[in-house]
Amino acid sequence: MKIRNLAITLLAPVLWGTTYLVTTQFLPMERPLLFGALRALPVALLLMLFVRKLPSRDWWAKIFWLSVFNIFLFFGLFFYAAYRLPGGVAATLGAFNPFFVALFAWPILHKKPKKHTLIAAGLGIAGVAIMVLNPDEMLDWWGVFFAVAATLSIAPGTVLTKKWGLPDSPFVSTTWQLLIAGILLMIIALIVEGPLPKFNTENYLALGYLSFIATGLAYIAWFYGLEKIKPHIAAILTLSTPLVAVVLDWVILGKHLNLIQIGGGILILTSIIYEAFKQKKEDEEAKAKS
């Protein structure tokens, strides 16, 4: 496996780990639906200049539902969580996604979770409980709800992508998902949150970073990596997202997790690593038999 491929793939979760700090420090207006729209739309319009292509007609409904789960719900809920939780906590809760994927794969793909997946999920749930039920530092329960809901929202989209595949290329699918979700978020934001606020240069730079770098560049790097490296390695690389968020909170904001929260976070991350290596072993055994 080439170091170059690992480095490019790693870029995506590292960039995702910066989004919490950028949101809270440079977009203080707390307009989660609007910022969800403005994270999706600019990069979608830029990518459209290169894609210039409609998905085939039989994919229109599929692209719509993928955009709802992968972008619309996730981006909106993400910003609600970002304003209510420390970035490290929100990102660590987001690491629970593989288990939600396994849960939805059961009814959609008729793929029953393996024993090791259930064990890993149990470890992860214990870690989440330790983090959020810490009596020394009670977290905002709405923030916890939005963070978990954001993570949950991606799971059916991930499973449906596995079931349906991708039309032509991942870039066509991603571009249209971003565009559709961005338009939906903007419409709802204008109705629920009111007219656009006045932005200063700092706000525009933050929005540009979130859209073009932390979304556009990150997704391109991620899709590139998924074609070059094995899935269990990609799963482990996603652990850099909460790591980056925690380090930024500590270095720049002076916030840090206490020992109980660190213990919960370690349990969650251990569960991901355990599941990734068990999956690797299964893949190797299946390959040896074929």
Q: How would you explain this protein's 3D organization?
A:
The structure is a single chain. With 290 residues, the chain is mainly alpha-helical. It has one domain. It has 12 helices and no strands. The protein has helices at 3-26, 32-51, 60-82, 87-94, 97-109, 115-132, 141-164, 170-192, 201-228, 231-237, 240-253, 259-289. α1 (3-26) packs across α11 (240-253), α4 packs parallel to α7 and α6 (115-132) packs antiparallel against α12. The longest helix has 31 residues, at 259-289. The protein starts with a helix and ends with a helix.
Name some characteristics of this structure:
12 helices, 290 residues, 0% strand, mainly alpha, single chain
Quick recap of the structure?
The chain is mainly alpha-helical. The chain has one domain (3-289). It has helices at residues 3-26, 32-51, 60-82, 87-94, 97-109, 115-132, 141-164, 170-192, 201-228, 231-237, 240-253, 259-289.
> How many strand elements?
0
- SSE string: HHHHHHHHHHHH
Dominant shape: globular
The largest sheet is: none
Q: What is the typical, i.e. mean, pLDDT?
A: 85
Class computed from helices, strands and strand pairing: mainly alpha
Our count of helices gives 12
Content of β-strand: under 5%
Domain count, please report it: 1
Residues in helices, as a percent range: over 70%
User: What's the Cα radius of gyration?
Assistant: 19 Å
Name the poorly predicted regions: none
Q: Span from first to last CA?
A: 22 Å
